[in-house]
Amino acid sequence: MTHAFDKNYWEQHWDDRTSHFVAANPYLVDETAAMTPGTALDAGCGAGAEAIWLAEQGWRVTGADISAAALATAAGQSEAAGVDVTWMEADLTTWNPDERWDLVMTHYAHPTIPQLDFYRHIAQWVAPGGSLLIVGHLHDGAQHHSHMGTPPDDATVTAKDITALFDATAWRVDTAAERSRTVVGTGVHSKTLRDAVVRVTSLQP
Ligand SMILES: C[S@@+](CC[C@H](N)C(=O)[O-])C[C@H]1O[C@@H](n2cnc3c(N)ncnc32)[C@H](O)[C@@H]1O
């Protein structure tokens, strides 16, 4: 049975969570290694591990999410870590901020709108010369209809689908990769995540 990835779904998701990964996504760590810290937006920041890690590296970070429950956890984690992050409750599918960021990033955010439309929408918020980092669940060709363990089909993407969004006259593709990694949860289970990782840079002066 499939369902909408709406605010109710995500509030329930975060209310039900009793533990959170504390380590930042390794692709964020790799992809920002050579960047000079500036301003950053984490679109769909969840419990805040990536936003907090980036703030610890000297970036001025805004973490935005549709779920108040996720943001409450994130705020607790940033306070415990002693870093400043601006937490913002917003539905990013309709949000129209005036601000632009040197880095806009998103990890596994899947909203109610099609995945690629979401990436196109958040790309507008990259400052001239800035970067967009997308980490998404990889579309592996199999049909998945449930969120139990595997993401449903419409929440998955390929690196090729993502890079096709970016006109070569306006964006440079720095990374377009499909990767696997094993994560270990707080229980006995570990699982393999297959990801599409794309980083593009705005060519606007
Ligand atoms: C699978 S979680 C990933 C969280 C975090 N980025 C991570 O990697 O652990 C997806 C996140 O996207 C958020 N999200 C989904 N739809 C959204 C929307 N329309 N606007 C803002 N955030 C949204 C959810 O609340 C959730 O925190």
TrEMBL record:
Superkingdom of source: Bacteria
Keyword annotations of the record: Methyltransferase, Transferase
Domain Methyltransferase per the UniProt entry, residue ranges: 41-130
EC number, UniProt record: 2.1.1.-
Record carries keyword Cell inner membrane: no
Top EC class, one word: transferase
Biological process per Gene Ontology, one example term: methylation
Gene Ontology MF, one: methyltransferase activity
Protein name: Class I SAM-dependent methyltransferase
Organism classification: Bacteria, Bacillati, Actinomycetota, Actinomycetes, Mycobacteriales
